[in-house]
Amino acid sequence: MKNRIIAFFLLTTGLTQGAAAQQLLSLDSCRAMALRNNKELSISRVKQEVAANVRKSARTKYLPQINALGGYEWTSKEISLLSDEQKETLSNLGTSLTTGIQGKIGQAMQQIPPSVMQLLGAMGIDLQTLGGQLSTALGGVGTSLNGVGQGIVDAFHTDTRNMFAGAVMVTQPVFMGGAIIAMNKMADINEQLAANSTEQKRQQTLYQIDQAYWQVVSLRHKQKLAQSYLDLVKKLDGDVQKMIEQGVATRSEGLSVSVKVNEAEMMLTKVDDGLVLSKMLLCQLCGLPMSEQIVLVDEAREDLDAVELVPQLEVEQALENRPELRQLQNMVDLSKQQTNVLKAGNLPQVALTGGYMVSNPNLYNGFQRKFSGVWNVGVLVRIPIWNWGDVAYKVRASKGATTMARLQMDEARELITLQVNQSNFQVREANRKLEMSKANIRKADENLRTANLGFSEGVISSTTVMEAQTAWLQAQSQKIDAEIDVKLSQVNLQKALGTLQ
Description:
rod-shaped; about 10% strand; Outer membrane efflux proteins (OEP); two-stranded parallel sheet; alpha+beta; 2 domains
């Protein structure tokens, strides 16, 4: 009893380790891992996020923009509101005035008649003394006026060698010739383009996974077939060798059978190598290490359950669903909006502005050395007048690009229509081949059974048996190929219709 428990434990442990060493994958799990780990698909998702942020950025162009400016500047000379001659005149204002008055007084005294001078002397009035007193008084007045003039000069001193300035500006676009609207539409189209590109990459990834998956399944079934064929020819070789020993078969027949054994072994080796490489490719597409030991669900199935898909000629559905065609439509729409942006270069542009500006020296209070500012509101208008036809040439070039994009889209429509028709024909052909291969299987099985029976009875030669085995191998191989073709043709049709999910 104890030995049985130990044996059961060892058997369970071995089965668990074997299951852990190999990962069981279905088609859906392979698809899910590929969609999760595919690098190109991840890049497309990032591009889609970038396009969404660009669209959000374009929306901000409708809103007012607020900017703060500030600066400092040192100059070797200050701003002067008075010339050097004006400064000199104002500084000597009193001196010039009193000198002129004294000169006039001296001229007037020289013109007084002697009789008047004698009369004034008799009255006790000394004009010389009076003139000296007047000159002294005028000298004081001149000094005062010089001070006043110098004060005026000092008042006009700006002290602008060190200047500070700052401003907060608000700009609200009113009409930009339709450029902002066109740019926002372009941002929306770019986001759609990124989404369609992601969908295309997704369908392409699924298509590649299905191709690799069914390739592995096909090679696995062919590996089993090659092993079965090798067992058949080995059994025949053993029988022929016994017949040679009994003298009822020739050595030539034995060599012919041995050649078939070698061919079967070589065929099995090629299938083994192809299966290993195909699994490595499938692991790479799924994001798994290429050395990962995987087993596919459909490898163990004798019949792949190839459900017959009735082909449908749904060209309009394909034209609507195909992401490639939607991308080309996005390119046409982008080119149209690019033309609108260029046309805006010939239209007026209007914007409202407002803000608050400060400066030091204060320009609004006699260059006072402290910060002070002023509010402002304005309108900016830009009207293009002449640019030598630059914008017109760019618009023509953009319209040419739109025409080329539209022609590419028309050509893509024709190619997609052709692809849908070809995929429908492939589905029909694959279904017919599968039915024919099943009929051939029944005939080949019966032929091989009859040949083995005849050989065992000694009425059929080994050559006939080898021919029956070869026909059986071909029939089995054709059946495997037909089943895989049905699967792949259905995938091709779904991809052509844009319904590969």
